Amino acid sequence: MLKTRTRKVITLPIGQWIARETIWWDPATEQVYPSAHLRRLVAPGCNYGYDILVYVGRALFVEAQPVRQIIAQLAQRHVHLGASTVTELGRRFVGLLALAHRRCAGRLQRAMSLQGGYILHLDATYEDKSPRLMTGIDAVMEIVLGNVKLPSEKASGIVPFLRQLKKSFGPPLACVQDMSKGILAAIQEVFPGIPDFICHFHFLRDLGKDLLGAQYDMLRKRLQTHGTRGRLRARWRTWHQQIEDDPLLHQTLAQLPVSGWPTQTLSQAPLLAAYLLAHWILAGLQQGQGYGFPFDRPLLVVARRAPEVHAHLQALLALGTRKEWRRNLPFHHLDLALQDLVRDDPLAQTLNRIETHSQLFDRMRQALHIAPVSAQQGLNHAGESIEMKTLQREVAAVTNEVRARPEYPTTPALQKLTAQVDRYDSKLFAAPLVVSTPQGSRTLQPQRTNNLMERFFRDLKRSCRRRTGCQALGRTLRTLLPDTTLVNNLQNPQYLKILLDGQPSLEALFAQFAPATVRDELHKAHQNPERMPRALKRFIGALASPLPITNFIEILKPNRIS
């Protein structure tokens, strides 16, 4: 026996307790043997046990619990932590999980080979000038393979990431990505000859922006110039207050969805009608299926509803007499709010072009059988199950219709649409992949969309907002460890079994890693891939004049360094 020592340890079953550890020493080998049992409970030099670390990590990243809630729950179990300690334990949890994930890369590769291989989906997310968080996911087993933070989506930064994935898991069967030029160039460099497909939804969205973007921007500017939405909202708020102050009107409005339109005579009927008409126009801003522009075009709905309401107002005003002008005053006010928009003749021509091109864009949506107008899934819609050859035929038919239009030779937007279809034709229509597995041949169909990644990043941001309570996530994504998204894999039983490799729990698995290895992992993970270090930015920004920089150059010149 070399010596005994005591240390404070905090674990979930007991809370805080004192551990008395006996250290043994072998004179023959001069090898020192600390307590193996204590090492399985808590890391050397640490007070908090692995069970608390795993509890905090799961609560933070799997259940997206706020820090204060975790502190309160642990306090009930006689474990008292501060906010900074919870954050630090969460970082260590992610670092240990990243180490375990990389150590089991060979086992993951063998598991994926039993499925026939893996299909790599790539995408990146960012907010408020934060670094891009790029993630690679296997669409077959639906597990996160790797993550990296990049200052931008340039191929030079993506290539090392893809090479690391290739080294760990081998080349994929195919890649699916959006239309990012950087990702496309990196895939061609690292995975030459591997089928590379682009997301139908992203492709269609880019087509729509090319086709409708310029005209839609003009519509937005004209609405801003006329101030139509602001005027309507101001009138609506005024009328809403007047209705709230009138018990009869308030009751009539409240019963409208149940009892229908009132049949009794109302002295303030024009006020109620004008209020509802203004609301109907503004409700056009909520029209759509949740796809975003160019699939949803709410400003076009507003611009088309306004003239329709204006025409009805003219008919209503024509029915009244001069003596009724005061009662019909809400109709006059609503008419004034719409006049500038209705009388804008150039805007009317823009609206006609938008509707013409919208019909063409919707024809392409039908041809690709994706983002249908009648669907309610929004961005979660993965597209109808249609054979690729059928899709290719229908898209080619629409493209030929576009080329046959009389205005095609003089319309750059239409020409760009057909050029995009021709350019990406080979990357759009993925034939099923026939692969070999120990159970025999298997057919894998690459997903038509990158919605797997879109849903993944939406869930990530939603959990970050729940955990932090902040709507803006720029700072959160800037400080987030890249491998935090690996926590999603813990909900996959197959992955968890591969990760544990016979260990009974995550606590036992994490106990196998040396603390120095964890510290190195966290140090590397905290390196921020910004274009310029923030300390250097502050240093340069604090200079009162450029004189120190010019003096630096003057000093270098005599030494022939500059």
Structure summarized in a few sentences:
The protein has helices at 36-41, 50-62, 67-75, 83-103, 105-114, 155-169, 181-190, 200-226, 228-245, 247-259, 269-282, 298-319, 329-342, 345-368, 388-404, 412-423, 425-428, 451-468, 474-479, 493-500, 506-510, 515-525, 534-541, 547-556, and strands at 3-11, 15-26, 31-33, 119-125, 132-138, 143-150, 174-177, 196-198, 433-437, 440-444.
Folded structure, characterized:
The protein is α+β, with helices and mostly antiparallel strands and 562 residues long. It has four domains: 3-100, no CATH class; 105-195 and 433-477, Nucleotidyltransferase, domain 5; 199-429, no CATH class; 534-562, no CATH class. Helix content is 56%, strand content 11%. It has 24 helices and ten strands. The strands form three sheets. It has a five-stranded mixed β-sheet, with helices on both faces. It has a three-stranded antiparallel β-sheet with strand order 1-2-3. Strand 4 and strand 5 (132-138) form a beta hairpin. The protein is globular and about 115 Å long. The termini are far apart.
